[in-house]
């Protein structure tokens, strides 16, 4: 178990801590939950940086990292929706995208030679937008800013999904071509 994998597991373990603070009755509960979210985000950046810089990528990390990301994303979306902070259509739109990504990633990994859909700038920009939108709630920015950021997040996630779908299709077809060539 290397440091990047431990950071990824830490991110998963921070989810119940986030939920504890988010649903607690303590003063500034959303701020404290948001600080946990920030800590998870920092650990996400660190685990990727360390894994790349020190050549510490592992199969476990490649599989676990996107799972940790999606678990945190769903946690934020569901908690914000249940408290009426964001409308349900945002949860549905982003939830469908994330479920499709999980299914596609699972198909590539299990049935197409353990391939992993690589992250790219579209996905990273969409993630950055999600963080900005979430933090706009945590730090109580005017609601027009939060609404705009969440709308932008949904739009960027749709663009990222289309891009990932194109990559997925090429990866799947290339694997099928390799099978036919053999």
From TrEMBL:
One Pfam entry name: CDP-OH_P_transf
Transmembrane regions: 7-24, 30-50, 86-110, 122-142, 148-167
Keywords, ordered alphabetically: Lipid biosynthesis, Lipid metabolism, Membrane, Phospholipid biosynthesis, Phospholipid metabolism, Transferase, Transmembrane, Transmembrane helix
GO BP annotations, alphabetical order: phosphatidylglycerol biosynthetic process
Topology relative to the membrane: Multi-pass membrane protein
GO MF annotation, one: CDP-diacylglycerol-glycerol-3-phosphate 3-phosphatidyltransferase activity
Main location as per UniProt: membrane
Catalytic activity: a CDP-1,2-diacyl-sn-glycerol + sn-glycerol 3-phosphate = a 1,2-diacyl-sn-glycero-3-phospho-(1'-sn-glycero-3'-phosphate) + CMP + H(+)
Coiled-coil zones: none
Compartment list: Membrane
Functional note: This protein catalyzes the committed step to the synthesis of the acidic phospholipids.
Protein's recorded name: CDP-diacylglycerol--glycerol-3-phosphate 3-phosphatidyltransferase
């Amino acid at each position: 178990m290397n440091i990047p994998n431990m950071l990824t597991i830490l991110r998963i373990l921070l989810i119940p801590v986030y939920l504890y603070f988010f649903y607690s009755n303590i003063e500034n509960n959303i701020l404290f939950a948001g600080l946990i979210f920030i800590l998870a985000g920092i650990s996400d950046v660190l685990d990727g940086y360390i894994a790349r810089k020190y050549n510490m990528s592992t199969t476990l990390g490649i599989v676990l990292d996107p799972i940790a990301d999606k678990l945190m994303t769903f946690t934020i979306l569901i908690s914000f929706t249940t408290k009426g902070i964001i409308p349900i259509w945002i949860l549905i739109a982003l939830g469908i995208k994330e479920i499709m990504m999980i299914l596609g990633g699972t198909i590539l990994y299990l049935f197409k030679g353990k391939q992993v859909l690589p992250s790219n700038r579209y996905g990273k920009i969409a993630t950055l937008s999600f963080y900005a939108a979430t933090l706009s709630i945590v730090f109580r920015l005017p609601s027009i800013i939060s609404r705009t950021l969440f709308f932008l997040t949904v739009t960027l996630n749709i663009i990222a999904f289309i891009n990932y779908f194109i990559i997925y299709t090429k990866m799947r077809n290339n694997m099928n071509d390799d099978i036919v060539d053999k």
